[in-house]
Design a protein that fits this description.
The structure is a single chain. By secondary structure, the chain is of the alpha/beta class. It contains seven helices and ten strands. It has a ten-stranded mixed β-sheet with strand order 1-4-3-5-6-2-7-8-9-10, sandwiched between helices. The longest helix has 16 residues. About 5% of the residues have low confidence.
Length: about 270
Amino acid sequence: MRAIVQLTAQHVHEAVGQAPTGTEPAALGAVGASSAGTVAQLRAQVERVQGRRLDAPVLPVHPALASLLPGGGLRPGSAYSLPRSTSVLLALLAQPSQAGSWCGAIGMPQLGAEAAEGLGVDLSRLVLIPDPGARWLAVTSTVAEVLPVVAVRPSGRAADGEISRLAARLRDRGAVLLVQGPWPQAEAVIDVGEPTWKGVGRGHGYLSGREVTLTSSSRRWPRPRRARVMLPDAAGHVSAAPERVRPVEALPAESAESFPQLIRAVG
């Protein structure tokens, strides 16, 4: 098992009263006469307001989860609301960490390194802050300054102003926030349900996997999306659940004989 970084809240310092760092966007120049120049100017204006590039690539996730996220991945500068399921969280952290992104988990003292590695998280790029204390939001904001993916389990309610400042910092740094619990203005809200364990027979057998339904709601979609996934599968990883094939039932002989036979005269 590879090394894992674990910090205490004392290692994280919040600069009180300091505004989010970053250069101010340049003012827009005169709009050119060509349509290409006009489009470029409008694009720059929208990017300045939103705080991120419209064509910025998303962080990768497992293919079994891609359909649940707008753009097929985790969008930099955005927040996502997750259920209090460690498996769902680790499944989302796996691909970004494998692709080279550092990830942080705040306020999750029960998160196990072995379970994280089993679901594909690169432990050499995982930072744990198990107990951030009452200032969990300030710690989260500071960690988002340096890590591209930050997961947090809130230990209390945060003021609207503090949440807005954190959202501005996420956009400024291009960080992704994964929140175990409700979160305002989330890019997507993911829920888990309908769990079914595999491998158990009639009083015998071994658990070989758990099949769950993940439901994702987003303001970018007219209706929620659903995906049936193995979390974990027989190998301890995340994978798409096999499609259920409904068996074809043979028609009983007496029923077949009861249908009237259609006869047509020919000639």
